[in-house]
Amino acid sequence: MRLATWNVNSVKARLPRLLSWLEETGPDVVCLQETKCRADQFPADEVGELGYATAAHGEGRWNGVAVLSRVGIEDVSNGFPGEPAYEGEADGQLALDEPVMLTPEARAIGATCGGVRVWSLYAPNGRSPDSAHYLYKLAWFEALRAALEDELARGLPLVACGDYNVAPTDEDVWDPSVFVGSTHVTPAERKALAELRDLGLHDVVPTPMKGPHPYTYWDYRAGMFHKNMGMRIDLVYASEAVAGRVRSAYVDREARKGKGPSDHAPVVVDIDAADFGRTGGAPG
DNA sequence: ATGTCTACGGCACGTAGA
Question: Which residues does the annotation list for site: Important for catalytic activity (predicted)?
Fold first, then answer.
């Protein structure tokens, strides 16, 4: 099974590149983030012509996640149980007797594809460590940890991949000194990732196509991609059964080049998964 | 270079988010 994850930064703006990338790369399962469209606006017909079924979860202008699969797509979950909603900076100014029902943002979608439980995740950015958005990010990760613990208990091989908006180590940013006081590198964010790994998930670190660091994101500004000043924030967290069958993984930096790219590159993982589709196989 | 992208509302370009 060839699995990929890619923050496309608008699936509508990226559609020609997405379609040609699908044809060239031939993944069986693709996790997309920042699709920035409602489910009914997702170009399911266009990817369908290439043989992919779609599960999409979106809200319009921001966020949005999807799973594409040509090995089946079943048991779709839009979001996860306990997923928090962003209450914003205005929390506390609302009348106490006027509870407001907030809908979680479209940041997670799960589906079972070819015998593998697949999650496409788009973690909150956090904006700055003193913001309400940062607290929301940490709460979202704690709820994700609880949800993935339950998901793993189902016994299927599992991958939770996407834009985690956290660089796991200082090696995963081009210059740690630039990030002092910033999100993506704080101890609390890295602890949230460590707690996911404590569930038995393994960080599938891809091979960089160029240079020593498998960065997956480079800011559009200031020639950051040209100078390879990037970050590794798009991660594949795989259960033991999947991690033990990973043949290879790479960052497709070619997809970050040229006119009209996303600011993220895809991560592509090849897995020996011939027996995952069988019923009655070993769990986990 | 606070230097780039995107979507939105609404039809020009300012604003917000990343």
Answer: 234
CA distances from A74 to A50, A77, A112, A113 (A): 19, 9, 5, 7
β-pair type (A2-7, A267-271): antiparallel
Which residue of the set A86, A122, A215, A217 is catalytic? A122
The pLDDT of residue A160 is 98
Nearest-nucleotide field for A37 (CA, C1'): B7
pLDDT, tens digit, 9 for 90 and up, residues A116-137: 999 999 999 999 999 999 999 9
CA angle A272, A166, A54 (to 5 degrees): 50
Q: Which amino acid is at A211?
A: G
Q: Distance of CA A243 to CAs A29, A47, A68, A89, A219, Å?
A: 16, 28, 21, 40, 30
Which nucleotide shows the minimum CA-to-C1' distance to residue A60?
Answer: B7
The class (CATH top level) of A2-271 is alpha beta
What pTM did the predictor assign?
0.94
